[in-house]
């Protein structure tokens, strides 16, 4: 079949956005789980050095998120996507050959930069999908993202014993396919749209819409955005506890390492099976309802974690956390897209990615300090309390804005 390359580009099809998300997160999930294992087991580096590499990687990912947002808003989204996908491909491909110390760290950080920029750009493109409500697109992306995590972690579990090089070869093949999809399917006109599944115009949305016609559009932090950013920060700081200290904590309770791997499989399968049902409920309500409810459920899991001693109890707590995650995580990027001017969609999604990365930076440091002192229960209790306080502040901020909007309309 002959393809006419002279045709005008069509709007981005959601299926290519979702397929790209699947490839990206599968490839990414074949890298982050083995970084510490490879550094300590093969490169003979300390756990402290491995933690430092991960921390610097998260900081670099924050820089990538900022750059990606600026490029989407102020440069060319398509060219930015091609360049960032090429950067990731170069970094991952280089790890096949140059994976000794310290060059390993350099290429991991280069990949972190590209992944940070790419995630922001993908989220920004998601706000431009025509004919779909923004929150539905993000819900679909969230499901596909978790399918990628399951596939990637499965590959690590079964293939790591065959060598780090094999994993990097498969990951590089995935990112090469991703770059081909971006090069052939993402060259589309960027028509920025912001639609709300509830059909209800919130005070934040009114403020956003009224500023669209302004000649100088800049991303500005409103009180609601600050509260959302703080919530993202503490959410992902807390989430990092499951990626860092839970494995040794479960081992101290007499559980085998395989049980920790089982948790992530259960997490991924739960999200894949239930996310559509949770999304259907959340999509009929204002963003703040699902985000605040999800945050409360998410926080409560850490309170119950103080008392668990058996694996089945940990599974129940992790399922509780997963339900909270499903209510909160996919809604936040869509909510931010709704309450910010469409002209700064890239910077707005960059803000989301940066707050997530900042939580991932501080999480391992905070949990490590608490764990070194034997304060495991205090660690769980502290994140529970902090998250409830921030969630309450978000609710109060929204209530004040709503009250002010009602008074102004009288």
UniProtKB/TrEMBL annotation:
Pfam families: MFS_1 (PF07690). It is found in: Cell membrane. GO terms for molecular function: transmembrane transporter activity. Gene3D superfamilies: MFS general substrate transporter like domains (1.20.1250.20). It comes from the Bacteria. One of its GO terms (cellular component) is plasma membrane. It is a multi-pass membrane protein. Its main location: membrane. Keywords: Cell membrane, Membrane, Transmembrane, Transmembrane helix, Transport. SUPFAM superfamilies: MFS general substrate transporter. The keyword Transport applies. The chain crosses the membrane at residues 47-68, 80-98, 104-129, 141-160, 166-183, 221-241, 261-278, 290-308, 378-399. Residues 224-410 form the Major facilitator superfamily (MFS) profile domain. This is Multidrug resistance protein MdtH. The gene is mdtH.
């Amino acid at each position: 079949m002959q393809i006419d390359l002279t045709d005008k580009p069509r709007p981005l099809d959601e299926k290519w956005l979702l397929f790209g998300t699947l490839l990206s997160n599968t490839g990414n999930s074949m890298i982050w789980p083995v970084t510490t294992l490879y550094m300590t087991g093969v490169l003979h580096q300390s756990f402290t050095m491995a933690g430092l590499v991960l921390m610097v990687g998260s900081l670099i990912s924050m820089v990538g998120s900022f750059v990606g947002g600026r490029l989407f808003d102020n440069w060319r989204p398509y060219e930015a996507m091609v360049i960032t996908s090429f950067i990731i491909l170069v970094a991952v491909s280089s790890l096949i050959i140059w994976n000794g110390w310290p060059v390993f760290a350099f290429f991991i950080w280069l990949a972190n930069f590209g992944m940070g920029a790419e995630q922001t750009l993908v989220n920004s493109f998601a706000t431009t999908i025509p004919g779909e409500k923004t929150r539905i697109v993000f819900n679909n992306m969230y499901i596909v993202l978790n399918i990628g995590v399951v596939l990637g972690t499965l590959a690590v579990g079964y293939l790591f014993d065959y060598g780090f090089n094999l994993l990097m070869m498969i990951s590089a093949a995935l990112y090469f396919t991703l770059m081909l999809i971006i090069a052939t399917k993402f060259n589309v006109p960027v028509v920025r749209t912001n639609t709300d599944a509830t059909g209800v115009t919130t005070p934040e949305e009114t403020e956003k819409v009224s500023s669209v016609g302004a000649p100088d559009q800049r991303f500005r932090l409103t009180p609601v955005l600050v509260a959302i950013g703080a919530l993202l920060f503490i959410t992902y700081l807390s989430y990092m506890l499951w990626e860092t200290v839970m494995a040794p904590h479960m081992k101290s309770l007499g559980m085998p390492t395989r049980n920790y791997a089982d948790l992530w499989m259960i997490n991924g399968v739960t999200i894949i099976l239930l996310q559509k049902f949770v999304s259907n409920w959340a999509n009929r309500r204002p963003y703040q309802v699902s985000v605040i409810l999800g945050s409360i459920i998410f926080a409560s899991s850490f309170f119950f974690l103080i008392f668990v001693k058996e694996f089945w109890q940990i599974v129940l707590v992790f399922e509780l956390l997963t339900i909270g995650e499903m209510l909160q995580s996919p809604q936040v990027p869509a909510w931010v897209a709704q309450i910010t001017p469409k002209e700064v969609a890239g910077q707005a999604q960059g803000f989301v990615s940066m707050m997530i990365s900042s939580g991932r930076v501080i999480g391992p440091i905070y949990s490590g300090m608490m764990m070194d002192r034997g304060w495991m229960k205090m660690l769980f209790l502290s994140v529970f309390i902090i998250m409830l306080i921030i969630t309450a502040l978000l609710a109060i901020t929204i209530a004040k804005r709503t009250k002010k909007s009602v008074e102004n309309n009288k």
